[in-house]
């Protein structure tokens, strides 16, 4: 690949402007889909979508007993989980009921949560989640979402976990909530708690 700077961030486009973003074509619109869904405004474009990026991540997850036996100090523990299904055509909204369910299972409210990682496959996901949940926007993706950081498919879940744990440690927070849409209308959420 002659002439390609392999150390350059491919997702940064210095020439981007409000006008160039406004001129982008909708990502998923076709004439057939527009006829089938005439009320949609087709606002998802490459400009408000996360870039597909390279990445890998891993997390060491074990029982408290195993950690003690190995002499390891856990950074956080999983407190509750939820998985939901939502309309597969409108699948980006599954994070909303997944969040409600995981908070209910843990007996917590939004006031108990110190930070949220809501995967930003598209800008509409955390915006709809925020509007529906009423959560504090200052606690949402405090280190940037996937539009800024990238969406490495197959790696995003543990990237969100790592970002959340690191943020809680840096700020002295205790409870974090992560939620993510998945293909086919599924969504998951979990709560982590620092010791």
From TrEMBL:
UniProt xrefs under InterPro entries: Thiolase, Thiolase-like, Thiolase_C, Thiolase_N
A Pfam family annotated for this UniProt entry: Thiolase_N
SUPFAM superfamilies with a match to the protein in the record: Thiolase-like
Gene3D superfamilies on file: 3.40.47.10
Residues annotated as domain Thiolase N-terminal: 8-64
Domain Thiolase C-terminal: 73-194
Alphabetic keyword roster: Acyltransferase, Transferase
Family label: Belongs to the thiolase-like superfamily. Thiolase family.
Protein name, entry field: Uncharacterized protein
Organism of derivation: Agromyces marinus
């Amino acid at each position: 690949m002659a002439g390609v700077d392999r150390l350059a961030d491919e997702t940064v486009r210095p020439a981007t402007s409000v006008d160039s973003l406004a001129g982008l074509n909708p990502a998923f619109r076709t004439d057939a889909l527009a006829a089938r869904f005439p009320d949609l405004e087709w606002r998802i474009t490459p400009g408000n979508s996360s870039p597909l990026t390279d990445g890998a991540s891993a997390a060491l997850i074990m029982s408290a007993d195993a950690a003690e036996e190995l002499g390891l100090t856990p950074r956080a523990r999983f407190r509750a989980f939820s998985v939901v299904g939502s309309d597969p055509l409108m699948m980006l909204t599954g994070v909303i009921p997944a969040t409600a369910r995981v908070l209910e299972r843990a007996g917590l409210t939004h006031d108990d949560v110190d930070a949220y990682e809501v995967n930003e496959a598209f800008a509409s996901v955390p915006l709809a989640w925020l509007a529906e949940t009423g959560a504090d926007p200052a606690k949402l993706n405090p280190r940037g979402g996937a539009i800024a950081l990238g969406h490495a498919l197959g790696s995003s879940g543990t990237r969100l976990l790592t970002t959340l744990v690191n943020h809680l440690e840096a700020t002295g927070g205790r409870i974090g909530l992560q939620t993510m849409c998945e293909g086919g209308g599924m969504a998951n959420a979990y709560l982590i708690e620092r010791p």
